[in-house]
Design brief:
Layout: E1 2-6, E2 9-14, H1 32-42, E3 73-80, E4 86-93, E5 99-103, E6 106-108, H2 110-119
Antiparallel strand pairs: 1-2, 1-3, 3-4, 4-5, 5-6
């Protein structure tokens, strides 16, 4: 998982790999919930199930609580497939607070992405 300017994570951070994940642990204020939010965002879980009111709330804010000059955020999630290949998808929020999904340098629809997740047994 790669998070870029997402919630409490300024700049790029790599988290994982998650092999047999059953829990995320760490100190209070360490970003545990934000990691789960990043995974949920990357998997297109509806906004109402994330801990925010609007997509703009997912973009990292500076110390003054305002969105910094970087007005976008993204989460890249990589899946190791049964054949050993890696499939990466990036979900991005732009400066207009619109989201898009990128796969192999191309924008794809939510439907295409959700079909991949379902076909791979990742999403119900």
């Amino acid at each position: 998982l790669r998070v870029l300017n997402f919630k409490s994570f300024s700049e790029a951070h790599f988290v994982g790999p998650f092999l047999g994940l059953s829990a995320v642990i760490g100190p209070n204020g360490g970003g545990k919930s934000n990691i789960i939010d990043a995974i949920c965002f990357a998997l297109c879980v509806p906004l109402k199930h994330l801990r925010c009111r609007d997509y703009k709330d997912l973009i990292h804010k500076g110390s003054a609580g305002k969105v910094k000059s970087k007005k976008s955020a993204s989460v890249t999630i990589a899946f190791e497939m049964e054949n050993g290949s890696i499939e990466e998808f990036t979900r991005e929020i732009d400066e207009k607070h619109e989201t898009r999904i990128i796969h192999k340098s191309c924008n794809i629809s939510n439907t295409e992405y959700l079909n991949f997740l379902r076909a791979s047994g990742i999403y119900p």
